[in-house]
Amino acid sequence: MSDLLGSIAGGLGQGSIYALLAVGFVMIYKAMGVISFAQPAFMMAGALLVTYLAPEIGFFLAVPVAAIAIAGVSLVVERVAIRPMVGKAVFVIAIITIGIDVIVRTVAGAFIGRDPRPIGDPWGNATVSIGSVTVYERHIAAFIVAAVLVAALFAFFRWTPIGLAMRASALDQEAAMAQGVSVGAVFAVSWGLAGALATVAGVFAASNTGGTMDRNLWLVALAALPVIILGGLDSFGGAVLGGLIIGVVQRVVGDYHREWFPFLDTNLFLITPYLVMFVVLLVRPYGLFGTKEVERV
Description:
There is one protein chain. The protein is mainly α. The termini are far apart. 70% of the residues lie in helices and 4% in strands. The strands form two sheets. Strands 1-4 form a two-stranded antiparallel ribbon. A two-stranded antiparallel ribbon has the order 2-3. A hairpin with a 2-residue loop joins strand 2 (127-130) and strand 3. The chain has helices at residues 2-32, 39-57, 59-82, 90-112, 137-159, 161-171, 173-178, 183-208, 224-231, 236-260, 272-283, and strands spanning 117-118, 127-130, 133-136, 212-213.
């Protein structure tokens, strides 16, 4: 039982990373009606920036500085490459985001080098014991940070003028414009926030892979795609819950693979997010919390 609880705790830590990424995906989708495939690149670029800043200014200051910087990069990308395409076909904008992802990852890869770069996090492989359960400190940190950020975002959407404008725009963009809402500002803020969230997710993803990052870090973000389909493309709550579910199931399957599937040499944890997504979609085609009005990309 202690091992199972330890796996679940580790899954919640991994799921927190997926949740942060998924919230960024959903934020852009609700604002523009398109999935931004550039999120993996922003995650990678943010983590890379932290590896350069942490030795100079310290890890805890490097993370918010990198998040703000990547938010700025996201704003520029939105203004230069995405805003002119508003009104065009959704799949065209989606393909443009794929191009942005490739460009940003290629540029960032040039600064990574051949050897993995240390992220400089203070947790490493340190653990704490909660009763009979051993939990990695990095998983606890990821869960707490994700919970704080998600709570702050919900407060932002509920009580700030720009947050209310983003909610109004997500419900009916034309009606929001008629009421004086600046849809352009909504687009920009959604991209900026998504970029900042991707940076934080990238830091914890690197922390989860031995405290270093390499050119393959962006692959972590691919698991966030089934998360947003599972939770519902237009649901922040679904993104959070979906991320935690995928994280826990993936971690438990990975830890118990040899006991449950001794006849398989390949660990199934890599495809677990997609299998869970398929099963849920067979029952709820629009995800756990998605609405039927969602237009698939």
